[in-house]
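Suppose you are handed a protein chain with no further information: no name, no annotation, nothing but its sequence. What can you learn? This example shows the usual starting point.
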Amino acid sequence: MRIGSFAWPLVMGLLSAFLLGPLVLVAVFSFSSNALISFPMGELTLKWYRDLLANADFHAALTNSLAIALPVALISTVTGTLAAYAFAEWRTRLGLPLLALLGLPVLLPPLVIAISLVVLYVRWLGLPLGRPAVIGGHVLVTQPLVAAVIASRMASFDFTVLEAARDLGASRWQTFWKVTLPQMRAAIVGAALIAFALSLDEFIIAVFTIGGGNTISTFVWGKIKTTLDPSINAIATILLLMTIGLTLIALRLTRYRG
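A reasonable first move is to predict its three-dimensional structure. Written in structure tokens, the prediction is:
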């Protein structure tokens, strides 16, 4: 018993170090003056961040990423919220199977989804690749997560309040806007932040459907293939901080409060 109680924390500690160690090193080396990523480290500097901010290609990639992630968050939130609301309002045995069916794209390998989207856009629909194609692909994989977050909040929703509002003469739209939405606002905002963060970091669908140009993820991939520029550490650190920050805010907002 004593050996087990000692071994389990040790295993978890080693696993955490294995998973988090590279992330810590990336952040640390983003402030090193050395051109090579190796020890001993050089002096602390913000040179790589300054070089990154002066890079026009980085600005173009960041613009593309934001121009994709913002519509993805908006579309996924609206459609995912409406889907979760409909499934919860039905309150039948079909609600959970339909929600699981909606989440099917999340279970499929991203490579399969990316190839399928290229075939759909180019071969079947004859549409050009670009930002709209990436947005469609990202919505496909983020909308189920938004619906799942909203559905988990709707599971504890008191529908008798809606019935009372309707009895008092409120229309369906007034009931949704004045009764349902205020109680769901925190979960909706949190789900939108999750969709935004996922779209910002997504790589496989983006690299297949972006056509010309880059997103942040494909920009980093391109730099890694050509050279180990230390500014890559700066990009990774910025993305890491943004992702962690958005995730923490989303978890805070979507936490059930009874």
